[in-house]
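Bench notes, afternoon.
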Amino acid sequence: MNPTVYFVIPCYNEQEVLEETVKRLTAKLGAMGGQGLAGPKSRVLLVDDGSKDRTWEIIARLHKENRLVEGVKLAHNRGHQHALLCGLMTAMPLCDCAISLDADLQDDVDALDQFVAKYLEGCDVVYGVRNKRDTDTWFKRTTAEGFYKVMKLLGVDVVFNHADYRLMSRRALEGLSEYKEVNLFLRGIVPLIGYRSDYVYYDRHERFAGESKYPLKKMISLALDGITSFSVKPLKLISNFGILISILSVFGLLYALVSYFAGWAVSGWTAIVCSIWLLGGLQMLCLGVVGGYIGKIYSEVKARPRYRVEELLQQEETGPEPTGSKK
């Protein structure tokens, strides 16, 4: 039997692009069905992450007009990662595999066949990896590649040049559901699940319409979430740096004593002020890093819900069990 495939698309203020996105993805589902890559219960699942424009209104209308479209509306904006997780967990009991992609059509729709083909070969996770970053600005390209390199140096298992364009089998989704972090960084969590994985390489396109919903502030926040959620090396670096400063301070003290008794001591206002500002700044930086980890602990121990669904739109013919499941 053909596998039941769900396309999971988080949406935040995407009214300009939604209709074209659904048009292309439903056409793709039809083509994949003819090739034996998608079963009749395959769907496009749109997750409205508390949008302030007409996004949900458009989703509801498309759901009525197109039997392949389903929707989830979050009670309020929770961020891309939480909206994506909500969509994946909604699709989990209904599908054989789910493919997450962005609403702006930057992820290559033509590569979807390759994802499912690798799933049928036995892969539980298939990562979409960009061939190049020609469509990015120099700043974004440099910072993004630097982020992946830093994550690797800190010991975090992430796939280079992979965002959230990926396929996960139902078995992998069930594994993902066991991770209860409130501070989500799915790019780091998914490799921890294990199971057989592979890669699909694609070229990322320009955004079809509208503006990016991931400005610099959100990208930095996501990067910090990834670092502090998956690595304690910054804390170890602080400890090592503290030891180094202590050693240098001992040498500085010895030099000061020798200078005093030898009569070389000269009042050095500049050196004192520079030392105070340097050490004060380093202490504040270290406290900030430690505070970041404490903040993460604070969020986790409260164990508040990661998202809340306000409304769910599903087609009546959607069954509780996918017919093509092989996992």
